[in-house]
């Protein structure tokens, strides 16, 4: 198995007590954005020196700006069913929690999608509990089709990423045929004894089957996969090393690793107490984790949800995170019920800002909010995306696409304040497009959008 627990423990032991000179050598190497060895990562994971940590954050920020520029992609989760046969200790949807379960009808999915589109969203992450009877693959496939075919007067959802339980090659092929974006699955914890403990009496209890889900997904033709760990289940040093080992396995076997990595922390949920989890990650540890992931897999996207408070989100996007959710609900039917507070949330959220409030904050901090989905629709995914990213060529399309989707948002959903702020951002960013032919085409497309056209992209 590619997650070798003894190898990880050996790395952590060997990584202890690195000299200041060795730490500086590793940081200098990291600055080149070519990744780090497992042992180098193990040494940085145990770094405590404040000056060296500050330098690490600065390097992570340099790398992030070099690869992603100042773009931040926005999305929202869409929960379609809270039926679940699993009894995961950390989850509000666990089987032992007694409440009236529900799954959305296709008509209710349409209602949720219309609300999300009215908020300006173009990219969703479909979420559902695991229940072979009430939430089988056919229901999920129908939901994806419903999302893609639901349209408001101002547009529709352009990309559906999917976060459902580990499944078979046959089912992954069916998801691929529905034109999904990224298939996302959190390993939760790579530490097998902990994995077994927190998933007792659950279908999800099969560690190896869950761990090899991305192998099956890629064998089925899904070339964009997104991994993640639920920080707080076990020692974060072990988890980060294991996450990188998983990425390395996919790169070696399929030629491409994670398209994205998610870094959620355990939050309070019904039927659980945070005191029962001795490995909780505090804010300083969390910032360190985000920066380290950016150093070791520099070209991989990093996702941050509204589990995190606004002040933490605003900080870590400077040195790691490239995608954030906004205006999220984590309950089934939650967007329609948000004001009434009648949806059953899976866990507690910390950032309750509206999408417009998030966009204003991003732009005031110098970022370009992006609703771009062009790479998926142009086939720039999987092993086609990474060479473009590593060569820097992807910059010639990402920044222009971000600006065009931002202008769409401003014109269709913005208020007077955000329109003024956004136009200033667009005017500034157009001038720094490096290739003149790209700049000319972008300016032309922006005028077409102002004249009423939509969904233009490079």
Write structural notes for this entry.
By secondary structure, the protein is α/β, with parallel strands linked by helices. It has 3 domains: 5-65, no CATH class; 69-353, Aldolase class I (TIM Barrel); 391-450. It has helices at residues 5-14, 20-30, 38-45, 50-68, 106-118, 137-149, 169-177, 192-198, 207-211, 213-219, 236-254, 283-296, 310-316, 334-337, 355-364, 374-377, 382-391, 395-413, 416-430, 436-450, and strands at 71-81, 123-128, 151-152, 155-156, 159-163, 183-184, 225-228, 260-262, 301-304, 323-325, 368-370. Strand 7, helix 11 and strand 8 form a beta-alpha-beta unit. Helix 1 (5-14) packs across helix 11 (236-254) and helix 15 (355-364) crosses helix 19 (416-430). The radius of gyration is 21 Å and the shape is globular. The two termini are 41 Å apart. The model has no long low-confidence stretch (mean pLDDT 93).
What composes the largest sheet?
9 strands, parallel
Instruction: Output the number of helix runs.
Output: 20
> Distance between the terminal alpha carbons, to the nearest Å?
41 Å
CATH superfamily of the largest domain: Aldolase class I
Averaged pLDDT: 93
Structure class: alpha/beta
Which CATH class of the largest domain? Answer: Alpha Beta
Number of domains: 3
Rg, rounded, reads 21 Å
- Low-pLDDT segments: none
Shape descriptor reads globular
> So, CATH architecture of the largest domain?
Alpha-Beta Barrel
Strand content: 5-15%
CATH topology of the largest domain: TIM Barrel
How many distinct beta strands? Answer: 11
The helix fraction, in percent, is 40-55%
Topology:
Elements (H helix, E strand, L loop, with lengths): L4 H10 L5 H11 L7 H8 L4 H19 L2 E11 L24 H13 L4 E6 L8 H13 L1 E2 L2 E2 L2 E5 L5 H9 L5 E2 L7 H7 L8 H5 L1 H7 L5 E4 L7 H19 L5 E3 L20 H14 L4 E4 L5 H7 L6 E3 L8 H4 L17 H10 L3 E3 L3 H4 L4 H10 L3 H19 L2 H15 L5 H15 L8
Parallel strand pairs: 1-2, 1-10, 1-11, 2-5, 6-7, 7-8, 8-9, 9-10
Antiparallel strand pairs: 3-4
Helix pairs in contact: 1-11, 2-4, 3-11, 4-12, 5-6, 15-19, 18-19, 18-20
